[in-house]
Structure formats: C-alpha cells, structure tokens
Amino acid sequence: MCRKLRWPGGKPVCPVCSSTRTGQIVTRHLRRCLDCRKQFSDKQGTLFESPLQLGQWFFACWILYNYPKTTCQRLSDLVGVTVRTAWQMRRKWNAGLSLIVRPGTFEDTIKQLFFLSKNQINEVLKPPKSR
User: Fold this and answer.
1) How confident is the model at residue 131 (pLDDT cuts 50, 70, 90)?
2) Cross-strand pairs, 122
3) Which pTM does this prediction carry?
4) In whole angstroms, what is the distance from residue 27 CA to residue 121 CA?
5) For 70-114, how does the pLDDT look when each residue is reduced to its tens digit (9 = 90+)?
6) CA–CA distances in Å: residue 80 to residues 46, 86, 94, 108
7) What is the 3-state secondary structure (H, E, C) of 52-118?
8) Cα separation, 21 vs 12, whole angstroms
9) C-alpha pair distances (Å), 51 with each of 22, 30, 41, 58
10) Alpha carbon distances (Å) from 42 to 30, 50, 80
C-alpha cells in the first residue's frame, strides 16, 4: 500500500539517483538501488520518515484528523509512544496540513501528505530568522 501511495506507477524510484532499477531486501523491509547501490525505504524523504511503524503513524493521523484537539499526552497513550514523540508527530501533522491545498476525506489527506517531501515539512517547521 505504501508503494502505491508514494509512487503512483507502482515502480519505486531511488531518492539518491532517481533510478527505477531497484531491488527489494526482504529481510530488512528496504529497497536497494541497482545503479548507485544505496539502500532506502518507502518512507524515506516523506513526512512519515521515522523509526515508527506506518501503522502507528496512520493511527495517530486518524486521531488527529477526527479529534483535532487531542492533547499530546492523550495521543502518546493511545499510540504507545512518548509524549515528546507524540508532540513531534502532531507538529509534523499540522505542518503537513498547512501545505495541503484542499484537505478532503481522511484517505485523500493521507495521500496528499505522502507526496509532501521532508524538506517541504522542515521549511514550515523552521523557526523564523531573527534580525
């Protein structure tokens, strides 16, 4: 499912050299580029790039979509992460939502979040420059 969301054609693309010649490392849930030999995951370079499993991310996103006033403490209890991790997840979620043109249903929102790059999210999260 993650591959279909990230790459609409279903063919993974290397984030380093943009090659479509990739193989899968089944034992580690990674992909390997056959041209530059770099390893990458389906989550690399997206909002969801973290050690957390996608199931935890999607559950947190569902909670924040349906109950936007959920506290970080409550989110951490429900998802099973620390309060700091829940705070970071909520921060990335809000930054991603600010970049989405028209948030619609939950499924549409998740699809649009998958197309945002980590750099776009970090640009929103970056503190303003002081004079």
Assistant:
1) low
2) none
3) 0.75
4) 30
5) 999 999 999 999 999 999 999 888 888 888 777 678 877 877 777
6) 22, 9, 20, 25
7) CCHHHHHHHHHHHHHCCCCCHHHHHHHHCCCHHHHHHHHHHHHHHHHHCCCCCCHHHHHHHHHHCEH
8) 8
9) 22, 13, 11, 14
10) 8, 11, 23
